[in-house]
Write a structure and sequence with these properties.
This protein is an alpha+beta fold. The strands form three sheets. The chain has a four-stranded antiparallel β-sheet with strand order 5-6-8-7. A two-stranded parallel sheet has the order 1-2. Strands 3-4 form a two-stranded antiparallel sheet. The protein contains 18 helices and eight strands. The protein is elongated, with a radius of gyration of 34 Å.
Amino acid sequence: MKKKKLKIKYVKVFSASLVLILGVLFIIKPKWTKESIDRIEYSNEAITIMKEKNILDEITKKKYSKTVEKMLESGKYEEKYFDDYTKINCPEKENFEDSINTFLNKNYTPEEINNIFEYLNDTNQKKLKEMEHVDLKDYVKISNLEVDKIERYETYRIEKNTNIQDAVTKVNIGLDLEFYSEIETIQDPDSYTVLLNKYRGLPENYVPLDLTPLSINKNYKLRSKAAEAYEQLQSAALLDNVKFFPFSAYRTKDYQTGLYTKYVGRDGKNAADTYSARPRHSEHELGLAVDIRSDGLNDNLTEEHYKWMLDNSYKYGFIVRYAKGTTPITGYIEEPWHLRYLGVDVATDVHNKGITFDEYYDLYLKNEK
């Protein structure tokens, strides 16, 4: 009986010791060796910072994250955002670490941040960092988005009962505002694809430098490339028995001022604004626009010639700028006679897409510029 009690005592002691040993193993953190550290995917710089912050075990237990590594290396790592960092794709851009923390501080989710870096340009990202949190769900993949206009997009979309893409493009053009109410001075007046309309005007003293007289009538001038293209257009038209002549080309600021003033005096400002551009807003002042008339007419094209221009002018770099049906966007009555030079590539693309140059510029050229 005594031996049996002794045996039981030894078993209890052994069991207690085993429990104690196992407990110590669980409590004591493993000692990292050079060999074990070498197996970690993180950079040496990141590992050093992990050790200093005593977070090596915590981080290396989870799947490697390039974003976590970069945040550590930059010194921008914030422990409270560790789980968020692991869900954010590392952007292929410099100095993104501050941006990530800024967006997290504004309560953007990792998914939203991934979309911001993937779809929004630098300008939009900069604007977002200066704004309160914005719900981007319906807008982030819109290529011509301007994030500071989202409230205007929503108002226009509801008022016009239209889709998001249409609302974005129309608001970017300015169509939710009164004509000439907010005017941007263009920064690239020498560009062959510059947009000039009732919301964008020329610098006050701009004059194109390469004006060239047209051979058919030296009183009319266009910029050199546009003049050359016009000669080609006219020659091609003659082969199809389409005969037309210019009746207005480059205009100085003073000439446009006098013309507009005359129309206002005759018909009033509201009416004049529907068919005449205010000074610094006329494409004629660019030296890239020419008005043409069919043989036998004073200031217009026949229906046949108008159709020919729609079907052929783009091949030589021109578009019919104020075509029939475009008044709600351009703000001008139809002008079948008004040709605008853009260059063959852009004119062809505008023609193929079947949209106004105002829309095309916002969708495809604005961000490039």
